[in-house]
Design the sequence.
């Protein structure tokens, strides 16, 4: 065997094998071949312990002589190996050890354990065929040093294989994630890794790289950590959220990880939630919340620029009647059509809001303020036409209030309230119109609140403050009073005496008109029976039925109850329905009128000619009387159109068998003209104003009652 210098030289050569790129088995075989030659050993073997620690098998051998003979299925049979370096010689071996040495044709065996990650994984066994083999300490140290080199190589290979394995696993995992991922060096910005989505999906790659470029250009990498960047890709229509994080890469370097997640659905959901939060689900218009937000911005901008704007507050007239009488499906369709109509007016798209129920607000921004008058006219025109609901014409008007900013107020809630106040003033003035806010209107509103509170109290106290007045209806030919119309007045203890124009619109608005209407009908029936029983058996009384009353589901049963309760002759009661009710939902109107006529009363069509007249529906309805509205009579002496209209109705009434009553006659000239046109009956101040029952008796009924 060579001397110490030779051994060191050979060890130096073995150390160079640490840089060998071959597999562990290949490198290990080269090493043990060299030490076998160097030591003149019989053979050298590397034995690997199985993963379960139960068996041991040769994985590398210098001369392929004895490796298979050292394999054991039971690790306890590995008698030549131990936890420390072990020198087993034939001369001193146990029987079991001698048997194993003899099997290998060896005289001596040196075994050294090799650990990987602090776990005993292999043994290096060097065999000699002479008793003095490895008898020197330097040989033992040499074998131990070689074992350490094999340990280092094994550890390095395990780490490298682990890195490669980890990278491969990482690649597979990240390729199957539904986000684009790019890893780049924090120092240089060079891309170290891209998953499949980031490298192959164009919009994802472009989005991430664009964001990374922005981050590195700003040199504020840490400032973007945890702060997402949203990007919209115009070509694909997709939204991405790019997030950044810092971490150590698998090689220990500092990197920035950029991930791009598709948030298109999230954006759509957000837009849907925002739409639901700011839009009315039925009409598609903006809602109250959005109105307040937008109005605040517009007022601030308008005030700053020294300009003007306006708020229009619309409320539908008698909308509750449609909902209650016809059903909410009709009301919903009407609201949708009105919303479409309003947004179709030039300048109003995007500026209309449904505040709830049948209330709408329109914001007139300063850019179109000069068109305010034209817009108001267009809105009125919109409501002068019928709405088509389920293939049937319906008429629904509106009342509108207008408040100006900054003139009236610059507070969102205050300006809206002012427009609301003006709206009610328009409604109180006869509906289907508009009013501007003013201090006088404000005072009127304060009075309205008093009226409302006292009206509720009056109705809850058996309606004893309401009184019925009577206005004569005179036969044109005989000039005798043959009937009268019952008209309600309110003698309020707190507010004094009020005519119908002051409280009826509010009663309708508050839904209190039904109680008042039932009271008036019952009082009129009682009074009619008294007059019929005391010398005037053919005298009859006209009673107005409000639209609210008529749309009650039990209207026929309710009127029958009143007729039965008072005992009046039903034929001496004339029930007046308004034209606006008669033209809506002909089938329902026919059902109601037919039901009422079966009870005995006659039916009159009131307010005929107020804007929606249709000769066709007059022929369809079983009417007894047509009452022409006073708007046709005011200028009838000079107005050829009004004369022609009345003459047409007179001729039509003769054809269909109805009587004509003309309202609002105040002058002799009007009376004479109407008489010449063939009108049957006259009602108006020319023959008498509405008065209490006792005064009416004295002025209009012949003789004393009861005589």
Sequence:
């Amino acid at each position: 065997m060579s001397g110490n210098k030779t051994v060191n030289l050979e060890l130096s050569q073995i150390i160079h094998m640490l840089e060998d790129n071959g597999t562990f088995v290949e490198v290990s075989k080269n090493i043990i071949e060299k030490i076998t030659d160097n030591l003149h050993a019989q053979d050298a073997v590397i034995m690997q312990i199985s993963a379960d620690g139960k068996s041991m098998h040769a994985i590398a051998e210098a001369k392929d002589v004895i490796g298979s003979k050292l394999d054991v299925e039971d690790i306890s049979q590995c008698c030549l190996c131990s936890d420390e370096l072990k020198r087993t010689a034939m001369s001193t071996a146990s029987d079991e050890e001698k048997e194993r040495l003899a099997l290998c044709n060896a005289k001596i065996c040196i075994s050294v354990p090799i650990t990987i990650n602090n776990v005993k994984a292999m043994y290096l066994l060097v065999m000699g065929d002479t008793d003095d083999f490895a008898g020197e300490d330097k040989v033992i140290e040499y074998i131990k040093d070689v074992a350490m080199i094999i340990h280092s190589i094994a550890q390095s290979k395990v780490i490298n294989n682990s890195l490669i394995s980890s990278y491969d696993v990482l690649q597979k995992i990240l390729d199957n994630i539904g986000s684009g991922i790019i890893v780049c060096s924090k120092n240089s910005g060079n891309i170290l890794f891209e998953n499949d989505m980031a490298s192959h999906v164009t919009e994802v790659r472009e989005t991430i790289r664009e964001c990374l470029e922005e981050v590195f250009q700003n040199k504020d990498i840490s400032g973007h950590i945890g702060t997402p960047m949203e990007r919209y890709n115009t070509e694909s229509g997709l939204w991405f959220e790019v997030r950044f994080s810092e971490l150590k890469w698998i090689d220990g370097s500092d990197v920035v990880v950029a991930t791009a997640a598709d948030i298109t659905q999230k954006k759509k959901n957000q837009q849907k939630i925002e739409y639901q939060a700011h839009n009315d689900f039925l009409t598609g218009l903006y809602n109250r919340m959005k109105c307040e937000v937008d109005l605040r911005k517009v007022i601030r901008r308008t005030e700053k620029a020294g300009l003007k704007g306006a708020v229009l507050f619309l409320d539908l007239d008698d909308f509750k009647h449609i909902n209650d009488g016809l059903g909410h499906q009709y009301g919903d369709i009407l609201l949708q059509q009105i919303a479409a109509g309003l947004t179709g007016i030039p300048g109003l798209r995007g500026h209309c809001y449904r505040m709830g129920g049948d209330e709408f607000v329109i914001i007139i921004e300063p850019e179109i303020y000069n068109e305010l008058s034209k817009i108001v006219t267009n809105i009125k025109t919109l409501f002068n036409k019928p709405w088509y609901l389920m293939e049937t014409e319906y008429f629904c008007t509106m009342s509108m209030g207008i408040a100006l900013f900054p003139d009236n107020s610059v507070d969102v809630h205050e300006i809206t309230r002012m427009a609301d106040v003006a709206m009610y003033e328009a409604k109180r003035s006869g509906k289907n119109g508009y009013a501007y806010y003013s201090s006088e209107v404000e005072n009127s509103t304060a009075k309205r609140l008093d009226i409302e509170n006292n009206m509720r109290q009056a109705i809850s106290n058996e309606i004893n403050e309401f009184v019925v007045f009577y206005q004569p209806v005179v036969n044109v030919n005989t000039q005798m009073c043959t009937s009268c119309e019952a008209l309600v007045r309110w003698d309020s203890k707190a507010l004094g005496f009020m005519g119908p124009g002051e409280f009826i619109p509010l009663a309708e608005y508050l839904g209190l008109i039904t109680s008042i209407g039932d009271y008036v009908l019952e009082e009129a029936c009682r009074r009619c029976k008294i007059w019929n029983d005391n010398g005037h058996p053919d005298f009859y009384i006209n009673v107005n039925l409000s639209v609210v009353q008529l749309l009650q589901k039990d209207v026929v049963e309710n009127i029958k109850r009143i007729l039965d309760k008072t005992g009046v002759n039903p034929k001496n009661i004339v029930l007046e329905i308004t034209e606006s009710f008669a033209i809506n939902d002909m089938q329902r109107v026919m059902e109601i009128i037919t039901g009422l006529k079966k009870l005995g009363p006659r039916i009159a069509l009131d307010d005929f000619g107020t804007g929606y007249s249709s000769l066709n529906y007059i022929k369809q309805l079983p009417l007894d009387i047509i009452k022409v509205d006073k708007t046709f009579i005011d200028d009838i002496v000079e107005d050829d159109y009004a004369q022609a209209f009345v003459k047409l109705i007179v001729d039509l009434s003769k054809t269909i068998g109805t009587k004509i009553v003309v309202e609002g006659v105040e002058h002799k000239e009007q009376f004479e003209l109407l008489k010449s046109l063939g009108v049957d009956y006259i009602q108006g101040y020319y023959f008498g104003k509405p008065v209490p029952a006792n005064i009416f008796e004295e002025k209009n009924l012949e003789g004393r009652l009861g005589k």
